[in-house]
């Protein structure tokens, strides 16, 4: 008997209407196995519903045949006596017919079932027509007796030893029947799982075998259903190298011996429909490896899991009623790169520690909406064993983490964000997975999800395993997973983590640790094909969804269409957006210098425009920039507390005006001074009115709100984000003054002028060149405003151009530049 793992806790209560599964109370003593309990005798006397009424005729009784111990001769056939019509689907053979076929299993089948290596248990268990009648066989370890009940027919099967029971009945066809299974202190009436046909059809199996099943989650995993009139759960798992697979769970006390699955052919899928098992049940797959050893594994396709550190999968189905139809109908109206797109990145377990998905749904949408962000980006929500990985080492690719609630609870959170007008992006991690022995690593005894070459399989940075992107079933697993989150949870976008580590065979590897591709190059052609397939499939099936690549190199065509070949000979990867890691590194490096030294690093703020239109970019100030000794965003700024906050405000103003979409990690919107920690999350106490410096932090948050508000109502800041016509330098060479000035344009030519001043002095009567067709300019945002915590230096009155040219423009305006500030001006 396989003991329950320590990680397995109690399961939720089954719904009242769910028929209970067969549950042997405990393993009986061997001495008790021959004892026939009175419960069986009583059960034999109780006709099933539909039996003849009392007095209408004598109930047929079949006596158990006695097999002589140790003899190899065929067992004597059962003799049946019946009078009058019999309410059994199969008709009895003529009375007193002598049948010579042995119903007992042969030693080879017995041994394979006992060892968990039988590929087709349904072929030998259940009921099958044979010459002379129908043979009934059951494999019920720890049972004292098994009885077949069909209409008015009650037949106790012969105990063949080892948990096997059988009988041969003189029937012309297989009847509908149930089993009475007697244990030490209980008798259970159950459906026989081995009388049922497979639950997966030929089309499912064909698509799985081809690696093209785009709704893979509907075929594999655990699915409560009614099959052939029987209520239960279908279990299906891909394990092509397994010698045998059995289902173990709370419903069989974690002993899968009596629940062998059948192989459905060359596609490598194993399947079993278990009657009586319903939602909330815990389960795993017991796999017999090629070497004969056994391993107990969580379901790779599990749609719900136990709360970590427990590791069992949980049977589940969704009943959630969505309320976001209006959001879904309009999200595809404008492509993401041509729409306002500012993102608040959040780590759900630590945003407000202790909140569940449903509690987050009451607070997060209101907070994000108040600050004016168009989207939230959730750090990985797929199940992961170690919280310190922040979700980037996934074991349950199809299950939202149970730490915060059920899958339907997560649906409720997404729905609430949509109803508040906020899009939902999710970090998705198809690059690698951890080595936990209960999860994907060598799942069926050999490399399956990982590459067979150890050098290709081992991720050099994180101690994890890389997916084998060249295997069609693995690509299918991942492509379907991307679709699953978008279709089942209405996710609006996937930010794909660690794309660079997927694209290069030599990523973080020394010479001799990698093998070139077939062309002699360093590109991982399998990963390229996978990313192209994933993007093309997602964009085809889910209108309005955007995919975002976290890609840190100069790979050509990350956001180019997959069918458009670039100079490198590759088609585009097909992403919608790409994180601009170069802009992030350069601009933060510039801001970290003392203002007196910034003149020598001016190019770090201008170089991004050299390649700004090579891809569709997001400007990311993410969690990665505020952990592991990198300091929080405000703490990166030099100077005293006033200068740090002023520098942060000026930087945010520059960022929101720069071509590209914006992303800001939680806590940075109110100038948190400490690094982020997943243990306690943002320092919300900084916004407590009782805190003396609360106004300083509230001021920065008010600025973020106003940046988003002006941004959303100024198409010049986003309409032409990916086109050179949307940007023009006014002055990119004012290094001595630490000044940057540029124009952003809407499609109709309406401009916005952004001027950033990164020196801690006031510059009066500073001339900035402007077009001569704008009669006056007025200030729409000044990061030095008093309400943000600044010195309130600036010009609230409209400024009229002077006819003297400047910076290559025919006119100029005279401004007072606040210290460490960004000013936005629009035509008056």
UniProtKB/TrEMBL annotation:
SMART domains: Aamy
A Pfam entry, by short name: Alpha-amylase
InterPro entries tied to this protein: A-amylase/branching_C (IPR006048), Branching_enzy (IPR037439), GH (IPR017853), GH13_cat_dom (IPR006047), GlgB (IPR006407), GlgB_N (IPR054169), GlgB_N_E_set_prok (IPR044143), Glyco_hydro_13_N (IPR004193)
Keyword entries, A-Z: Carbohydrate metabolism, Glycogen biosynthesis, Glycogen metabolism, Glycosyltransferase, Transferase
Enzyme type, top EC level: transferase
EC number in record: 2.4.1.18
Subunit structure: Monomer.
Protein name: 1,4-alpha-glucan branching enzyme GlgB
Organism: Streptomyces hirsutus
């Amino acid at each position: 008997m396989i003991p329950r793992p320590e990680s397995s806790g109690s399961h939720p209560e089954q719904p009242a209407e769910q028929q209970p599964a067969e549950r042997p109370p405990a393993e009986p003593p061997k001495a008790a196995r021959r004892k026939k309990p009175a419960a069986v005798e009583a059960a034999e006397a109780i006709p099933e519903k539909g039996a003849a009424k009392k007095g209408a005729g004598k109930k047929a009784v079949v006596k158990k045949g006695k097999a002589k111990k140790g003899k190899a001769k065929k067992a004597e056939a059962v003799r049946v006596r019946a009078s009058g019509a019999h309410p059994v689907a199969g008709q009895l053979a003529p009375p007193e017919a002598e049948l010579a076929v042995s119903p007992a299993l042969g030693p080879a089948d017995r041994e394979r079932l006992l060892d968990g290596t039988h590929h087709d248990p349904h072929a030998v268990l259940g009921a099958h027509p044979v010459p002379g009648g129908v043979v009934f066989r059951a494999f019920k370890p720890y049972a004292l007796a098994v009885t077949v009940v069909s209409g008015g027919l009650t037949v106790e099967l012969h105990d063949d030893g080892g948990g096997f029971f059988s009988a041969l009945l003189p029937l012309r066809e297989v009847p509908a029947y149930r089993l009475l299974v007697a244990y030490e202190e209980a008798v259970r009436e159950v459906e026989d799982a081995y009388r049922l046909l497979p639950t997966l059809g030929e089309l499912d199996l064909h698509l799985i075998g081809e690696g093209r099943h785009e709704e893979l989650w509907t075929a594999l995993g655990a699915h409560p259903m009614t099959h052939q009139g029987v209520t239960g759960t279908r279990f299906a798992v891909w394990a092509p190298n397994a010698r045998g697979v059995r289902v173990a769970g709370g419903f069989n006390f974690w002993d899968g011996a009596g629940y062998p699955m059948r192989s459905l052919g060359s596609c490598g899928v194993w399947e079993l429909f278990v009657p009586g098992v319903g939602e909330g049940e815990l389960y795993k797959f017991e796999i017999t490896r090629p070497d004969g050893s056994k391993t107990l594994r969580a379901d790779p396709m599990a749609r719900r899991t136990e709360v970590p550190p427990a590791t069992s999968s949980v049977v589940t189905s969704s009943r959630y009623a969505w309320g976001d139809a209006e959001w879904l109908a309009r999200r595809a109206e404008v492509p993401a790169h041509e729409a306002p797109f500012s993102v608040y990145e959040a780590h759900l377990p630590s945003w407000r520690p202790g909140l569940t998905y449903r509690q987050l749904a009451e607070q997060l949408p209101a907070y994000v909406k108040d600050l004016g962000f168009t989207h939230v980006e959730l750090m990985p929500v797929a199940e992961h064993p170690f919280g310190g990985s922040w979700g980037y080492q996934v074991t349950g690719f199809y299950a939202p983490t149970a730490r915060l609630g059920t899958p339907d609870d997560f649906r409720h959170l997404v729905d609430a964000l949509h109803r508040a007008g906020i899009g939902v992006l999710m970090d998705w991690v198809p690059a690698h997975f951890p080595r936990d022995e209960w999860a994907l690593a060598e799942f069926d005894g050999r490399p399956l999800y990982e590459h067979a070459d150890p050098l290709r399989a081992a991720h050099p940075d994180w101690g994890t395993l890389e997916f084998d992107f060249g295997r069609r079933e693995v690509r299918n697993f991942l492509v379907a997973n991307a679709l699953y989150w978008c279709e089942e949870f209405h996710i609006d976008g996937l930010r794909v983590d660690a794309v660079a580590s997927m694209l290069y065979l030599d990523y973080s590897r020394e010479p001799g640790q990698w093998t070139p591709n077939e062309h002699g190059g360093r590109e991982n052609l399998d990963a390229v094909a996978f990313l192209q397939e994933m993007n093309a499939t997602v964009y085809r099936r889910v209108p309005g969804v955007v995919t975002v690549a976290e890609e840190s190199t100069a790979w050509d065509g990350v956001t180019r269409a997959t069918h458009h070949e670039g100079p490198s000979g590759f088609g585009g990867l097909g992403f919608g957006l790409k994180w601009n890691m170069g802009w992030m590194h350069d601009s933060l490096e510039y801001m970290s210098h003392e203002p007196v030294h910034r003149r020598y690093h001016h190019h770090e703020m201008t170089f991004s425009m050299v390649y700004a239109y090579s891809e569709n970019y997001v400007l990311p100030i993410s969690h990665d920039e505020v952990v592991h000794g990198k300091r929080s965003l405000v703490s990166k700024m030099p100077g005293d507390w006033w200068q740090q906050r002023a520098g942060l405000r000026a930087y945010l103003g520059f960022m929101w005006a720069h071509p590209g979409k914006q992303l800001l990690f939680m806590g940075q919107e109110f100038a948190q001074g400490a690094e982020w920690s997943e243990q306690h999350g943002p320092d919300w106490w900084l916004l407590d009115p009782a805190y003396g410096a609360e106004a300083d932090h509230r001021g920065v948050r008010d600025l973020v709100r106003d940046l988003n508000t002006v941004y959303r109502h100024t198409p010049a800041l986003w309409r032409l984000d990916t086109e050179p016509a949307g940007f023009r330098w006014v002055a990119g060479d004012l290094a001595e003054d630490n000044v940057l000035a540029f124009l952003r344009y809407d499609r109709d030519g309406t401009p916005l002028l952004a001027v950033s001043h990164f020196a801690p002095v006031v510059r009066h009567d500073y001339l900035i060149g402007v077009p001569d067709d704008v009669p006056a300019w007025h200030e729409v945002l000044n990061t030095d405003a008093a309400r943000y915590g600044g010195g309130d230096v600036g010009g609230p009155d409209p400024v009229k151009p002077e006819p003297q040219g400047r910076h290559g423009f025919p006119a100029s305006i005279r401004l007072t530049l606040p210290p460490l500030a960004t000013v936005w001006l629009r035509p008056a």
